[in-house]
């Protein structure tokens, strides 16, 4: 199926007069070759995938030991590594890299002799939702795999490249301000090098009213934005109607997608929500399966381990910390890096792709609810048919746990509830959160976003 799709792309020929078989430009040829390989590698058995990943990891680890000051000292206890099988045997001895380690390492995480063919590299700073900035380097090699995986995502979800794409995302570009936003002639470097595309419109994050007006004006086929932006837009359409009629699919990234958001988007806008899991430091970690709501690890880009509190790989459905190793970043190798998120592995997928399955991405520890008995759980915002989105319909909301007994519900864009209504809501909230917390309602003008326009529906401030 994917092969047929890739073959049927209207790829322009770089040699006049030759229209079949097409001779693509060198960059298009590299990307297409990668796509064809991905179509094969995603069907490899899990053990073959691991063997190939470790063959690549030998290169990364040995290069890091030789040229990166941070790893030179951290890996001094390891034997000489000559092959993937041996590396796999000693993998548990390779220390993990926390966000704090990375922050403190500063320039010591950069290679002193970067590979010339991977250059130029550029500095990339990520604040993350923890507000703890880290800086790594990306280069031609990491960008290539970013572009190839972006293309794979378009192909998996059968995007029609002629259609209009719209992006709502924070940007410094003054042209992207409302009411018109910025217009680009194509979807970007991952696609236009291979295939002609429709236009791409970009709006920076603004008010929901401005975002909706812009969407109705452009009437795009595809929309890409953060889940929190999507939640606000969907709530607006639920209250006012007028969903742009060309819209066929919505893509999200950067934040956690709560299961209720998928349902709400389907109910209100009649389209599917497709999520991707990526970070600035590592590129793509996982793409959503075209046939299921879970994710497939991008094993050709990254080795993902989901690890429990005992330091062992999690079982199916067991939540654990996401630890990732970048396979192609030789400029600032990230080896067994704690991404900061929790996730749970899923059963093998029935779609025919053998790439490991992530069933749910759960977010950061501070997005976990802490119960008085010491348990930490991921709040689901829905229980026994009660849903937060219905209780606060039309409002922007954020839930903050202040102590083991107190939860604040911050609400914006809504008239305050009466004392009686608040009392009813408290009873429902006790069911949703499975404990009779003291629920305090705060009515705000606006709920501010975190660094880079990120937004957290739930935050726990209990140490
Ligand atoms: Zn699948």
Automatic annotation (TrEMBL):
Record GO terms (molecular function):
ligase activity
Q: Which SUPFAM superfamilies match?
A: Acetyl-CoA synthetase-like
Q: Which UniProt keywords apply?
A: Ligase
Keyword Ligase part of the UniProt annotation: yes
Q: Identify this protein by name.
A: Phenylacetate-coenzyme A ligase
């Amino acid at each position: 199926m994917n092969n047929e799709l890739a073959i049927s792309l209207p790829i322009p020929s770089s040699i006049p007069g030759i229209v079949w078989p097409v001779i693509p430009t060198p960059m298009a040829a590299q990307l297409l070759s990668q796509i064809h390989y991905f179509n094969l590698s995603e069907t490899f058995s899990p053990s073959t995938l691991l063997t190939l990943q470790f063959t690549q990891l030998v290169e990364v680890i040995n290069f890091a030991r030789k040229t990166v000051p941070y790893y030179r000292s951290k890996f001094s206890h390891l034997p000489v590594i000559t092959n993937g099988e041996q590396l796999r045997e000693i993998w548990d001895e390779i220390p993990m890299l926390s966000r704090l380690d990375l922050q403190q390492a500063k320039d010591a995480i950069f290679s002193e002799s970067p590979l010339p063919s991977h250059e130029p590299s550029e500095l990339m700073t990520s604040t993350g939702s923890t507000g703890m900035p880290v800086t790594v380097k990306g280069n031609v090699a990491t960008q290539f795999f970013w572009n190839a995986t972006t293309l794979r995502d378009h192909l998996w979800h059968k995007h029609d490249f002629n259609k209009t794409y719209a992006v709502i995302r924070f940007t410094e570009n003054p042209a992207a301000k409302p009411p018109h936003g910025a217009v680009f002639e194509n979807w970007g470097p991952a696609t236009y090098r291979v295939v002609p595309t429709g236009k791409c419109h970009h709006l920076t994050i603004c008010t929901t009213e401005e975002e909706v007006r812009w969407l109705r004006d452009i009437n795009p086929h595809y929309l890409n934005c953060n889940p929190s932006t999507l939640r606000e837009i969907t709530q607006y359409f639920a209250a006012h109607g007028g969903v742009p009629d060309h819209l066929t699919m919505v893509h999200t990234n950067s934040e956690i997608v709560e299961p209720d958001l998928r349902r709400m988007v389907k109910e209100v806008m009649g389209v599917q929500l497709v999520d991707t899991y990526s970070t600035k430091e590592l590129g793509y970690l996982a793409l959503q399966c075209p046939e299921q709501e879970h994710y497939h690890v991008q094993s050709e880009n990254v080795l993902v381990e989901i690890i429990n509190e005992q330091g062992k790989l999690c079982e199916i459905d067991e939540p654990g910390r996401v630890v990732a190793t970048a396979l192609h970043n030789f400029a600032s190798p990230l080896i067994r890096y704690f991404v900061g998120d929790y996730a749970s592995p899923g059963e093998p997928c029935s779609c025919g792709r053998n790439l490991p399955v992530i069933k749910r991405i759960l977010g950061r520890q501070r997005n976990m609810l802490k119960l008085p008995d010491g348990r930490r759980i991921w709040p689901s915002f829905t229980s026994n048919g009660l849903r937060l989105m219905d209780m606060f319909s039309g409002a922007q909301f954020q839930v903050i746990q202040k102590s083991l007994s107190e939860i604040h519900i911050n609400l914006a864009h809504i008239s305050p509830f009466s004392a009686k209504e608040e009392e009813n809501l408290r009873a429902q909230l006790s069911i949703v959160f499975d404990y009779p917390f003291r629920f305090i309602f705060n009515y705000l003008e606006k709920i501010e976003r975190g660094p880079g326009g990120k937004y957290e529906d739930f935050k726990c401030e209990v140490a």
